[in-house]
């Protein structure tokens, strides 16, 4: 018997989510981040940890896309996200590989479900607008919430210490950094080079240069964030991945980030989102 249309839709969205996260982590030479040939500023994880984590999340993205088909409030999405985090931590021996991705990409998968239920075409702009419109206020409410079952995360500590809205602000605003920074950089570099990996690297540096990345803030404070953003901006000003010597420059930035224990984990998550959004047009 053929699978119902909703199941096929959710499976398609889930495959795209996992593929996008795989492309992010498989991109070699990212500064300070885990990749196939190095673990950047992260002694507690490597590429294998990310593969185990992705395996554990295979069921989550279709499940949250299917939940979106019911046009849910925020509470059921949050419950799915919390369960997925527990699955991730069980698969990685308690290492945080995909906390941001579970949140960001989960919301976008659910948004695609809402668009499908409304009979609307899926596009990057439409999916981001659904997250803002349907769940933005509830997402922001989490910034001031703390309770016994919601302990202070690094992001919440940084929100209080440095006044940064981090992942919650970005999602509640409809992912402006992914839409207005990551996606244009990715598309322009893809048009110029025809190479998806080069385009992804350019998008990553563009995101690092612009984002209030709470991973950089947590590890390095304001000075660390400013240092990371300036390094990425200088890389772009020198031509980014279109410069003949870009790899040498990227290796130097990676070395500097690792020496300072800096990791642009939020920018990496938004690269995953960018790669997901880039493939949305015509998905439905
Ligand atoms: C809101 C989340 C991301 C927690 O955020 P918080 O900033 O408090 O925690 P933490 O610092 O541990 O993780 C945030 C992660 O977001 C990513 N990130 C950092 N900065 C940014 C940014 N500016 N934009 C986007 N992502 C970012 C990083 O990868 C980071 O690891 C989320 O994990 C959460 O609360 N989950 C509970 C379940 C839930 O609400 N789910 C919603 C539906 S899926
Ligand atoms: N390729 C990647 N390499 C490293 N981190 C990544 C990568 N892609 C995404 N990230 C994000 O970075 C986060 C991990 O960063 P980090 O280890 O700094 O967080 P932490 O465990 O909360 O804090 P810390 O280790 O600084 O005490 C993950 O939640 C993940 O979302």
UniProtKB/TrEMBL annotation:
InterPro entries: CitG (IPR002736), TriPribosyl-deP-CoA_syn (IPR017555). Keywords: ATP-binding, Nucleotide-binding, Transferase. One of its GO terms (biological process) is prosthetic group biosynthetic process. Gene3D superfamilies: Triphosphoribosyl-dephospho-CoA protein. It catalyses: 3'-dephospho-CoA + ATP = 2'-(5''-triphospho-alpha-D-ribosyl)-3'-dephospho-CoA + adenine. One of its GO terms (molecular function) is triphosphoribosyl-dephospho-CoA synthase activity. It holds the Pfam family CitG. Its EC number is 2.4.2.52. It is an enzyme of class 2 (transferase). It comes from the Bacteria. PANTHER family: 2-(5''-TRIPHOSPHORIBOSYL)-3'-DEPHOSPHOCOENZYME-A SYNTHASE (PTHR30201:SF2), TRIPHOSPHORIBOSYL-DEPHOSPHO-COA SYNTHASE (PTHR30201). HAMAP family: MdcB. Belongs to the CitG/MdcB family. Involved in the formation of 2-(5''-phosphoribosyl)-3'-dephosphocoenzyme-A, the prosthetic group of the acyl-carrier protein of the malonate decarboxylase. This is Probable 2-(5''-triphosphoribosyl)-3'-dephosphocoenzyme-A synthase. It comes from Dechloromonas denitrificans. The gene is mdcB.
């Amino acid at each position: 018997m053929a699978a119902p249309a909703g199941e096929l839709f959710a499976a398609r969205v889930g495959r795209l989510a996992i593929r996008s996260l795989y492309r992010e982590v498989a991109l070699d030479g990212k500064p300070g981040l885990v990749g196939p040939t190095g673990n950047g500023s992260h002694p507690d994880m490597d590429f294998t940890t990310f593969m185990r984590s992705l395996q554990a999340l295979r069921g989550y993205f279709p499940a949250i896309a299917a939940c979106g088909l019911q046009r849910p409030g925020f509470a059921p999405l949050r419950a799915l996200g919390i369960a997925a985090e527990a699955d991730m931590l069980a698969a990685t021996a308690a290492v945080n590989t995909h906390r941001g991705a579970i949140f960001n990409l989960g919301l976008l998968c659910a948004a695609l479900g809402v668009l499908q239920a409304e009979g609307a075409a899926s596009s990057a702009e439409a999916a981001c607008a659904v997250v803002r419109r349907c769940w933005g206020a509830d997402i922001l409410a989490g910034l001031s919430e703390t309770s016994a079952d919601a302990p202070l995360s690094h992001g919440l500590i940084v929100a209080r210490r440095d006044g940064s809205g981090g992942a919650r602000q970005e999602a509640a605003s409809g992912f402006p950094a992914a839409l207005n920074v990551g996606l244009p950089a990715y598309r322009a570099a893809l048009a110029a080079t025809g190479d998806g990996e080069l385009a992804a690297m350019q998008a990553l540096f563009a995101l690092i240069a612009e984002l209030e990345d709470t991973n950089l803030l947590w590890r390095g404070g304001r000075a660390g964030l400013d240092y990371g953003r300036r390094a990425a901006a200088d890389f772009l000003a020198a031509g980014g991945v279109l410069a003949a010597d870009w790899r040498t420059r990227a290796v130097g930035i990676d070395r500097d980030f690792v020496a300072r224990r800096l990791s642009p984990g939020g920018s990496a998550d938004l690269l995953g989102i960018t790669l997901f959004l880039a493939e949305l047009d015509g998905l439905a």
